[in-house]
Design goal:
By secondary structure, the chain is α/β, with parallel strands linked by helices. The chain has 3 helices and 8 strands.
Amino acid sequence: MNFVSIRVITHDVARLVAFYEQVTAVPATWSTPDFAELVTPCCTLAVASERTVALFGAGSARPAANHTVITEFRVADVDAEHRRLESLGVEFVQKPTTMPWGNRSLLFRDPDGNLINFFTPVTPEAVRWQERP
C-alpha cells in the first residue's frame, strides 16, 4: 500500500489552490473548477469543492472544519521559508522551533484554517530517519 494524496475540501477552491501554489511553489493541475492537484515527487495535495463531497456521501466532509490533521512538507531550510512566508502575510502558529524529535518546524495556517508544517531534519537521527527507503 502507498499513501499517495490528501484532499482538502473548501468553499473556495481557487483561493486555496492559489495559496498552496504560492507557499509550495508547485503549480496546480486543474481537472475541473471543483478539483485541482498539486503534485510533488512523493505525494499529491488535492483541493476540492464542497460540491464534490456528495460523490463520497453527503455530509461526509465539511470545509474549514479540520482540527486534527497537520499537512507536512519537508523543506531544505525552514528559517529561509519562514522569511519568505512572512512577506506573503501567512498566519503563523509557531515560528521555527527545533522539536524534541530533531526536526526544525514552522507551523502556519492556510486560508481555511488548516494547519501546515514546513520542517527540516536537523539532528543526525532525524536526518537518518528521513533518508530511510
